[in-house]
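Next comes a concrete protein, fold included:
___
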Amino acid sequence: MAVGLRVLTLDVSRGARGRPGKPWHSLPNRSSFTYLVRLSKKHEIETSGLFDHILDAWVKGKSSFGDISVTRRQMTEDHGVFLITRDGQIMTQLRLTSEMLRLLTEINLNDFQFVGFASTRPRLPEPEDLAIKDLCLRTRRFNLQGTIVAKSTPRTVLSRSGKELLLSTATIKDGSGTIALSLWNDHIDAFSVGDTIRIENALVKRYLGEPQIAIDKHTRLRTIRRERPDKP
């Protein structure tokens, strides 16, 4: 599928002889990386976030963030084919080699220069204050205040890199409804049932067919009012 994109010049680190450093000797790798950056800039998607969700889809088959969905259509030892959609509309379908997928876990975007764009830093939408009833998969960045009414027993899960993480699912309630929130590692003990918390700059994703609050490095969680145990 042809996608009209602005011209982007990729300046990669070069070796002593002036040739692109490894692994950028590979034209398919350079082309795939440049295309993904173009795609993210054109559609105002956080580039590193797009990389993360492609990797997530490679492992799980599908990954969603906001109104963007990445689906793995084909998987072999050598490559994967991915369909990327927004609000159900096809943005692109592309083939990435297994080497390129590995590189996506290691790329530091600060090592590259992108000519034709004012900044390589992601421009995040300004979050707005919403109620739970207002949240859907199309919701971009938002703020929300609610009370934790339940927390699951923490369990151990593995990250894409094989690192063990602790995960607990909290149920958040406000005057309009309830929704799930994933609490990771230190956040698990930082918040208790009964606490009223404010969630700032969060996202919505789909899990087991239902929307839930997703947090990333831009999200802030803080306690507004802490539940006090009853005195004996």
Remarks:
- Helices lie at 27-42, 47-60, 98-104, 186-190.
- The chain has a mean pLDDT of 80.
- The longest strand covers residues 196-207.
